[in-house]
Amino acid sequence: MPANSPNPYSLTLTLDDVSMVSVLGVQDRVLAVLEKQFPTVTIAVRGNAITLSGPEADVLGARALVEDLGEVARSGANVTPGDMVRAAVIHRESGMAPTEFLSQPILTSKGRSLRPKTLGQKNYVEAIDSHTIVFGIGPAGTGKTYLAMAKAVQALERKEIDRIILTRPAVEAGERLGFLPGTLTDKIDPYLRPLFDALHEMMDPDLVPKLLASGAIEVAPLAYMRGRTLNRAFIILDEAQNTSPEQMKMFLTRLGFESRMVITGDVTQVDVPGGQSGLKLVGGILEGLDDIHFHYLGSQDVVRHSLVSAIVEAYAAHDARETSAHGR
């Protein structure tokens, strides 16, 4: 029957060798999202059979998505309602199947897969694979640091590198750590804690202290990078918007042989004194150089609570209005 026919088009899919809970979600939560994405399609589930009815074009679109979700479930990945929303949007806008990004785990940790969940994240991970230095720039919740750390752990496990170095500027203290109470560890812990937390999510918690003690993993303030050459390392600079131009240059020139760097930050959240951000400046200096890639993530790549994406967009709209008002 032609698309948009007033008579409903109907077909039945049978998903063999897969748990329907993996496809439709606990308490059919993924199914509920699918129904919202295709409001003109009636979806009936009986055992492993799914019957779709409605306008032909919409039914065929829903079928393609359901079939791909079945493949994702067979790969061992858990599909969440958020994954379903993103998969539907990407499928609708680009025709890309969810299997092209949801079923490609970077790591498997504690029974769950760490993988890109949006097209922007997929392209970001691919950029890390193909460039020596990558800048991941975007708002909170886009996975820019988390995915970079997953790639670092993957590289260490594959023995492609000898060590992981994680660093960020302690700008909130002006990097004057001597004015803070406690031992050195006490002083730097608040600034580096998010990196430690991510490590413990990706690796056996009992293994992390051993790797830290052996130097295979190093977590340190940016000020500690000065004067070093870092060979066979995967180096991540987090919160790079809070570096000064001098600190950014210092960090980038630490690059040694067989090393890779990922620099992440959000240029809308600059806390560096004077507002002169090394991350903002570096794009105009290095963009266009071979083997350096700038990847920009947006609100569509936010994978935290759906409200986070809405908050990011609301602040962006506010900033645009302020800029326009001051421009007049």
Question: What do you see in this structure?
Answer:
The chain is an alpha/beta fold and 328 residues long. Helices cover 42% and strands 17% of the residues. The protein has eleven helices and eleven strands. The protein has helices at 20-24, 29-37, 56-74, 81-94, 119-130, 144-157, 184-202, 207-214, 245-252, 278-286, 306-327; strands spanning 9-14, 42-46, 49-54, 107-109, 112-114, 133-137, 163-168, 217-221, 233-237, 260-265, 292-296. The strands form three sheets. Strands 8-7-9-10-6-11 form a six-stranded parallel β-sheet, sandwiched between helices. A three-stranded antiparallel β-sheet has the order 1-3-2, with helices on one face. α5 (119-130) packs across α6 (144-157). It is globular and about 70 Å long.
